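Reviewers of the previous submission asked for a worked example of the structure-prediction workflow described in the proposal, so we include one complete record here. The input consisted solely of the amino acid sequence. No template or homolog information was supplied to the procedure at any stage.
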Amino acid sequence: MNRRHFLSALGLGALTAASGASAETITPLNLPDAEWKKRLPPEAYAVLRHEATERQFTSPLLDEHRKGLFACLGCDLPLFNSDAKFDSGTGWPSFFRAIPDHLKTRTDLSLGMVRTEYHCARCGGHHGHLFDDGPKPTGLRYCNNGAALKFIPAKA
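From that input alone, the workflow returned the following structure tokens.
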């Protein structure tokens, strides 16, 4: 791990922690693995419960541009507003801002690098990784597995 990666990961973690100070209490949803396997489609189960990664450019949510919310497929907790979605060109749905306190982060040392991964604050489901190469105003890129999300359109 080099100094730049360490400082980047440290800064992203601090920024994420400081970004939300809401009074909302999120009640954890803890289910046995067998129950998750019954409730979730196979690809979503692999991503949310075992930190798999879906193939690039396979999520129908890449082309979702309506107003609404992107929520955790495991527990329905809203994670992102549609106005924070952008086309990162990476092949996964990307967002520059999350709903405060709805995600938890931790350091991921897999693949021989330091990354910040994020999980749903309610069910602990893995969603993706957080990078510091996103657009203004935050400069962040939440790179999310589409298989871990569902879209809830805004009411007209």
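The mean pLDDT is 87. We consider this example representative of the routine output the project will generate in years two and three.
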